[in-house]
Design brief:
By secondary structure, the protein is an alpha+beta fold. The chain has a domain of about 130 residues: Alpha-Beta Complex (Nucleoside Triphosphate Pyrophosphohydrolase). It is built from two helices and seven strands; from the N terminus they run E-E-E-E-H-E-E-E-H. Strand 5 and strand 6 form a beta hairpin. The N terminus is likely disordered.
């Protein structure tokens, strides 16, 4: 039997504090002429595809949910072009690293929590050719999220998703998240 997200799956409140994640700007400010990701959200097949073949890079992130179906958002502090904007926590997959291992590592390093990844929320193409952002649903297995490297964390209900300024790359995924959270069915976390 597969576990479902229920009350008590994760802490209900995150303290203010710092968090700096690296996925949205892919480590550098956007060019003035850089396109905003406009590709539709796609479901992502397991595996890195051509990303590791030298034609881009995979960035992984997580829509961490608590027992009240709120999602954890992280406020960036850098680079200046993205400072103050909000994103799903995550970062780049390192060469030779499995994408779910990278996601778990990023959550340990950036949030000081152990997570369980659930189903994929979706994937979008980033402004840099060949770069992709893939986001999973997730829940916290141990620890209380804290912003390790600066910034701020905030739990957002579905009604509050529009209250923050999301990074352009995350916006299509926020829309997909909103639609999924409005469905009455619980999220089922498959055994990975």
């Amino acid at each position: 039997m597969e576990p479902e997200l229920d009350a008590g799956s994760a802490p209900g409140t995150a303290p203010s504090g710092g968090l700096q994640t690296r996925h949205a700007g892919v480590g550098r400010p956007p060019r003035a002429d850089a396109p905003v990701p406009t590709a539709p959200v796609t479901s992502a097949a397991a595996g890195p595809g051509d990303v590791r073949a030298g034609r881009g890079r995979l960035v992984v992130a997580v829509a961490l949910l608590d027992g009240q179906r709120r999602v954890l958002a992280a406020r960036r502090t850098s680079p200046p072009a993205y400072a103050g904007m909000w994103e799903f926590p995550g970062g780049k997959v390192e060469p030779g690293e499995d994408e779910l291992e990278a996601l778990e590592r990023e959550c340990r390093e950036e949030l000081d929590v152990q997570i369980e990844a659930g189903p994929v929320l979706g994937q979008v193409e980033l402004a840099s050719p060949g770069w992709r952002l893939r986001v999973w649903f997730g829940r916290i297995c141990s620890g209380t999220p804290r912003a390790v490297e600066g910034g701020e964390l905030r739990w957002l209900s579905v009604a509050e998703l529009g209250d923050v300024s999301w990074l352009p790359a995350d916006l299509p995924l926020v829309d997909a998240l909103r639609r999924r959270l409005l469905e009455p069915e619980p999220l089922v976390f498959p055994a990975v």
